[in-house]
Amino acid sequence: MKNVLFISYNFPPMLNVASLQAYTYVRHLQKYDWNPHVLTVKKGDWWEPVDNSLMGKIPPVVHVSRTRYFNINYMSLLLRYFPSSIPVRIIEKVGACLPPDGQIGWLPFAYRQAMRIVRSQRIDAIYTLSAPYTSHLIGYLVKRKTGIPWVAHFGDEWTQNPNRRYPFVWQRRVDAWFERLTLDSADQIVLAWAGMELLFPIDISSKSSVVTLAFDETDFRSPANERKGENKFCITYTGSLYSYRIAINFLKAMEELLAEKKLAINKVDLLFIGRARSIAFTGFENSHVSQVVRCIGMISHDQIVGYLKQASVLLLIMDQLDRATYCIQGKTFEYIASGTPILALGPQDSATSELIRLTKTGIVVNYEDIEGIKKTILNIYTKWENGELSIEPAWQEIGKNEARVVTMKLAQTLDHIIGGC
User: How far is CA 90 from CA 26, 47, 168, in A?
Assistant: First the structure.
């Protein structure tokens, strides 16, 4: 059995996309002759939700080492007790864009523990997962000290990430230097979606590969997650809404359908699970649609899967950015595995649209086409009302994105960098 030092800041019980990604790989790597030694933090950021049930699903033979860390964003909490709010705003602005991120305070603790693991275990490879990008700097330092081959896995692009903000020129320059250092030094670059390589400053095609996010079929086997009889036409959305991923046109379409009485208001349920802030519904406070919207905060992963399977339709909103052509959101893989029809809003020529077509799991409508959205919703609703709403997914195609298949690709990448088959 080969050993990999698996460095990921995000790890269960944290409940976010990066944590679930790490959780997926760690659960299955041993099937492919790789034993992960996980290095993570003792406790995640205060704003991150947790799901303690995830820890019970990680094989007991997996060793998880947790360290302390310092997050500069914690300083803003302490400074809130001071009379002036100016220090708070300064700390929050700097912390949000501190190169490479606010988790840079994890580096000294993680590096020290990483070297202890290397000395006590026969580590064959180093693996780092971002975000945060601090994980890659830790991997770089361990590789430089030990010479152990290193795989850097990017969940998103770095300096071109739409969530990155650079109020100061020096921040962008330092961040770009860290990015270049990682790309040059890593033995292999792994990307979460095809096309991300175009968003980096240098050509990495000779040493990059794609290992997508995945769904784990064992998560869908629970009896609690079996589809139940539907009393309402329930459209479910999971995840966050951002300035570049908004539901306004969908809500406008729903408002018009409800106002025109084409949808029965007492039969419709719009369910938003996760970080759907009230600002996302600005302008709809006293509308018809406000009477059917329900917002549920962060819940356990098992509960999320249950809602996916019990919905009438799953709503998927692609980013209103150029990256939408390439980027496939992590939730998409669980959407297609649920067997529930998907209504996706975004460009027809995107990777997400192609995945939905290949798997025969839903319909894609251009985000700007409100009339097209209305027509599609009404058609789906009519089928639901008549008991005819169903799809015939291409399960063989869907299976290409199952956790064991995807983890096998990661294991093959690790084999490659150590000179294996």
Answer: 38, 19, 12
Q: What is the reported pLDDT for 242?
A: 75
Which secondary-structure segment (H or E) carries 184?
helix 169-185
Burial 231-249 (b: 16+ CB within 10 A, else e): eebbbbbbbbbbeebbbbb
Residue 204 main-chain phi, psi, to 5 deg: -115, 15
Q: How far apart are CA 320 and CA 380, in angstroms?
A: 24
Question: Average pLDDT in the 355-382 region?
Answer: 96
Q: What is the 8-class DSSP label of residue 50?
A: B
Candidates 287, 294, 296, 295; CA nearest to 252 is 287
Q: Can you give the pTM of this predicted structure?
A: 0.89
**pLDDT score for 398:** 96
Give every CB contact of residue 391 below 8 A, 6+ residues apart in sequence.
339, 341, 360, 361, 362
Q: Which of 347, 390, 343, 380 is nearest to 257 (CA)?
A: 380
Give me the mean pLDDT over the 353-375 stretch: 96
Q: Which helix (H) or strand (E) holds 2?
A: strand 2-7
Residue 46 binned pLDDT confidence (cut-offs 50, 70, 90): low
Helices 248-259 and 370-385, packing angle to 10 deg: 60
CA within 13 Å, CB half, 37: 20
Better-predicted residue by pLDDT, 171 or 250: 250
For residue 286, what is the DSSP state? T
272 vs 163: which has the higher pLDDT: 272
Q: How far apart are the first and last CA of the chain?
A: 14
Distances (CA, A) of 220 to 91, 109, 217, 330: 42, 37, 5, 16
**Residue 184: how many other CB atoms lie within 10 Å:** 10
pLDDT score of 285 more than 70:
yes
